[in-house]
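Section 4.2 – Deliverable D4.2 (structural model, holo form)

The reporting period included a commitment to supply a predicted holo structure for the target in complex with N-(5'-phosphopyridoxyl)-D-alanine. Inputs used:
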Amino acid sequence: MEVAYYGGAFIDIHEKVIPIQERGHQFGDGVYEVIRVYDGHPFMMEEHLDRLEMSANEILLKMPLTRTEIKEIAAEGLQRAGIKEAEIYIQVTRGIAARNHLFPDVPAQFAMTIRQAKQFSPEKRQHGVSVTLLEDERWANCFIKSLNLLPNVIAKQKAVTNGHEEAVLVRQGFVTEGSSSNVFAIKDGILYTTPATKRILHGITRSAVIACAEKLGIPVVEKEMDVDFFTSADEAFFTSTSVEIMPIAKVDEKVLPADRPITNKLHKAYQALYQAVAQ
Ligand code: PDD
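Output (structure tokens):
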């Protein structure tokens, strides 16, 4: 069963509860997180809550709940949902007040949903997916996990409409990240990824994959990748909480090699991380 929490209580996920003057609704004035649950256990929850607090702090929003309270709501939600392979979505907004750009003096609002996680078939992972390069039209603070996702949703839609799985965004000739993922390339045995500046979200999966590579003795270089560099990679993949590691088979018309020894090794190492937590 899908579960939702809003206004301090568990509610029916289909219930109409967001007041018209919710600032998340009117301004996209808030921040969010997505946490993957494996076999009933939230994975890297502390890291996600760290990032949620960082994002809230960056937009000058005071968290309405403590970390312990959030974890308690998640635990109860998971129990009510009875879903073992789940995705927890958390959203914190600047509350409910008559529309005015100025910050209102009202408490922040906390929302959560718990739904079945998306599953990706082994065949799809084996085959890899197609991505398309699109201009990165987002703002200067992409490290904040803000609700303002308009450029991201437009990029994703354009990608899928044109037969791709993900949009890889390009700013001034350099690859930044996916519309909802981070990107990696492998060349001559070295793993490359865009540096964690303000231009990308500092993905939790990205950090975990870098740690896996270091443990496996795979050299990691954080480097601005131009389009030529990225499209001539030996292997490439994107990462996120929802997809884990997804191999890229094609970048627009450019087909990448089908042999992906390092991507496969990294994915196994990443799976071992959450399997260890779920035991
Ligand atoms: N998206 N970059 C962007 C723009 C993202 O939206 C995401 C995640 C990532 C990967 O971050 P992480 O590894 O911490 O999930 C990178 C989530 C899953 C979403 O919006 O649904």
